[in-house]
Amino acid sequence: MRYVAIGDSFTEGVGDELPDGYVRGWADLAAQGWADASGDSVEYANLAIRGKLAWPIVDQQLERALALKPTHLSFNGGGNDMLRPRTTIAHIVDAFSRVLERCDEEGVQLILLSGANPSAQLPLRRLIQRRGDLLSAAVVARVAERPDVVRALNWPDRELSMPGYWSQDRLHMNARGHHRVAARVITALGLEPPAAWWSLPELPDFAHMRRADYMREHLGPWVQRRITRTSSGDGREAKFGTWITLEPQAA
């Protein structure tokens, strides 16, 4: 198998930082879990960059990913778009249709993900919930007649929306959340993930940090980037721009 992932911070793995600073995330976990569950090596690349909107993901990552000649490509996007009120749901969903179209043309199987739902912990939670519901439903409708598309849908997962699966910034999943998403991807591929991945022991709960601290450390910098029209992904390179080989590991 040759699996390439494209997307934003969700797919890059932000929130699942290891002690040495490496950003892991569900795609890394799923790729290794795929090798372990199948007993075969998996070629893996990850072109995702944090902060990207849906169409820049398509414009900047899709053709580069397809040039690697993968057998499978995963795509998720739109989380950053949803936070911008002028962006329409149809505009975001058209990006999903474009990815599916190009995968069809290249003979690549699409693994389609919806992001997890962070709205319970965020300001403007009702707006984010409503837009996320609309986006999730619209994407599912676009692929309704395509049983060959692998679906790993996380937005409807109420367990995953609980605070214990989220990092300090309340916008990105922590290691627990990324493991749960990886388990869903492996299951969608028809394989068996480690049972513990569905709900690892709880990590220290940062979701209840004081409002003033949260505003200063997380919300304030996000607002500043919107004002200056900069992105957390500016200047970043893909963590795996070419293939790495993952061999099955013993349980």
UniProtKB/TrEMBL annotation:
It comes from the Bacteria. InterPro entries: GDSL_Rv0518-like, SGNH_hydro, SGNH_hydro_sf. CDD domains: SGNH_hydrolase_like_1. Pfam families: Lipase_GDSL_2. Residues 5-179 form the SGNH hydrolase-type esterase domain. Signal peptide: none annotated. This is Lipase. It comes from Microbacterium terricola. The lineage of its organism: Bacteria, Bacillati, Actinomycetota, Actinomycetes, Micrococcales.
